[in-house]
Design goal:
alpha+beta, Nuclear Transport Factor 2, Chain: A, two-stranded antiparallel ribbon, about 25% helix, globular
Length: about 130
Amino acid sequence: MKVYADLDLRFTAHPITKDLVPKYDAEAIKNSIRNLIFTMRGERPFAPELGSNLNQVLFEPITPFIQGIIQREVINALSSYEPRATISSVAVNYYPTANAVDVQVEFMINGSAVTHKTNVVLERTR
C-alpha cells in the first residue's frame, strides 16, 4: 500500500503515457530530504524558515565542530519540515581528497518499522 507520493523533481516522463512519474513512500521522502538539505533558509517565498543554513559552513575548514554543526542543521531541518518520517541517525563524513561532505540519513517512515537510508553529498563549488 502506497501512503506518500511526491512528484519526481527531475520531471521524468513515463515512456508510454508521457505523464510525470511520481515517487512513492521512501523514495518520496528521500527526495524531500535532499530538497530540504539543499534549500537555503530564506530561499523560498512565503516559507523563509524552510531549509538549512549549510551554505554558511561549507567553506569553513572541516573540523569535528563543523561536522557537528552540519549534523545539527540537518536534524533541525528534517525534524521541523519532514513530518512523514522519524530520523534515526545522521552521520557526517568528510572526504578531503574529493573536497566533499557526505551526509548519511537513516529514517523510518511513520507507522513502519523498516529503516531506510539516503546519502547526500555536499560539495564546495565555485
